[in-house]
Every structure is written in structure tokens, then in C-alpha cells.
Amino acid sequence: MERAVNAGFDEGRENRPAVTVVIPTHNRLHFLKRSLGTVLAQRDVTLEVVVVDDGGTEDTPGLVAEIGDDRVRLVRHEVSKGVAAARNRGLLEARAEWVAFLDDDDLWAPHKLVTQLEAARRHGDAGWVCTGSVNVDEGLRVLAVTPPAPESELQNLLAYNLNAGGASGILVRSELARSIGGFDTRLSNMADWDMWIRLSQKASLATVHRPLVARFEHEGGLSGDPRGVREEFEWVASKHQKIRAQRGVPASGATLRW
């Protein structure tokens, strides 16, 4: 098989990686070390990693120094600005043609990025690529599998924010993400859904038909403010009502799925 190291690689810029991986984090070193390990173990792809320390007080610089990999860069917000702003900071720092976002408590299969790059190449005009996920507990026992549904993935995303791999399952062209303004920093819980809806207006979506992301179910992994989640959901659904209607999503389809 042809190595996919050059998928998404700009031959005219020898030092440019294929993918920038953005990891926002805030005081979760025990998760961050594990997630970083799965990024650095990615096969057959050149990458850089931008860790965005969003106003944390733990020794994130020490962890990056301990890892000792020159593909990893650390940037810092002196005060916490939220995950949307942290992702945007990483997006601004990205040097690669493609950018992937990884929540600091999620893990990737070793072939996640190369598989998505190959899917984008097969699709031709794809501006972004999604994949499925498995939910696991602290012992890495699989609790549930969420494969993407190729025939309805975009429809599910527009209707319910039902993205099989979550933010950690998305690969997107960097300039495309920048061109639509990145993530909306007014949102705490639904910034990703808002972003995907806007992306759907600008580029086609390619789907990898198997789960390549492990998402942890743990205390602290879900929002502690269900009312705030619902309010943001309803706000985003209303904001993009016209787009969703154009895609065949009725107003009654705006249903929050936990």
C-alpha cells in the first residue's frame, strides 16, 4: 500500500506536516499524557501537536518536557477562556493543511489519521472527514460502539448533534476551518455542533466507516449544567434553522440526544 505520509502534504514546503493535532487541556495531566501517547503513535503520517493549556495550574510544561518529542508544542492561556477559544488558538497555530482536534481524555487508534487522509483523498472534494467511536471506562472496557452511518451521518449531525466520533473524530482542512471563523467562543457545550453545521455549508463530508476514537465515560466528562446544555442546543438549532431546513431537517428535529 502506498504510504499516506504525503496525503495532504504540501510538496513545496518540505518541513510542513500533513496534520496538526490540537489538544485543549485544563488541569487533567493524567488524561493528557495518555491521549498524547496515542497521537505520537500515529502511523504513516507526518504531524505536529499543539497542546493548548487553557489557564491550568498543573505542570503541563513539565509533561511536555518529559515526553521530549519535538513534534509537540505548548501554548498557554494565562486565564481560562474555554474549550472553544483553546481550539481556535490551536487552529491559528496550525502549520499543516489538515487539522484534527482531540479532547484531552480521548484516545485514537494508531491508524486514525492516515485512514482519514486516505478517505479524503478517495472522496476528492472532501473538506472534512468524520469517524466512529467506542465508549470505554477507566479500564478501557468497551461500553458502547457508535459507528458512523454513511447514508445519514450528516443528517444526524444537523438534526441532533449526533456526530459518531465527537470533536475527536473530525479531521478538517485548516484553511476551511479558519475561513468560517473557527469555533464560536460564546458557546461552552455546543460550539462543536455549531462548527459542523457551518462546515456543512462550505464543504462535503467524507465518512470513515469504523470507530477509530475511544471516548471515556468518567466523572467530570459530562456537563454539570444540563440546563445550560439545553439552552445552547436550542440557540444553535434556532440560529441554523434555515440551513437545517434546506437539508430536510424539520424544526421538530431539534431534539437533544444525551
Explain this structure.
- The longest helix is centred in the C-terminal third of the chain and has 14 residues, at 226-239.
- The radius of gyration is 17 Å and the shape is globular.
- The N and C termini lie far apart (40 Å).
- Strands 1, 2, 3, 4, 5, 6, 7, 8 and 9 form a 9-stranded mixed sheet that branches.
- It is an alpha/beta fold and 258 residues long.
- The relative contact order is 0.15.
- The model is unreliable at 1-12 (pLDDT under 50).
- The protein has helices at residues 29-40, 60-67, 83-93, 112-123, 153-160, 174-179, 191-200, 226-239, 241-246, and strands at residues 19-25, 47-54, 72-77, 98-101, 107-108, 126-136, 142-146, 171-173, 204-216.
List keywords for this structure.
single chain; alpha/beta; 9 strands; nine-stranded mixed β-sheet; 9 helices
Concise description?
Helices cover 34% and strands 23% of the residues. It has helices at 29-40, 60-67, 83-93, 112-123, 153-160, 174-179, 191-200, 226-239, 241-246; strands at residues 19-25, 47-54, 72-77, 98-101, 107-108, 126-136, 142-146, 171-173, 204-216. Strands 1, 2, 3, 4, 5, 6, 7, 8 and 9 form a 9-stranded mixed sheet that branches.
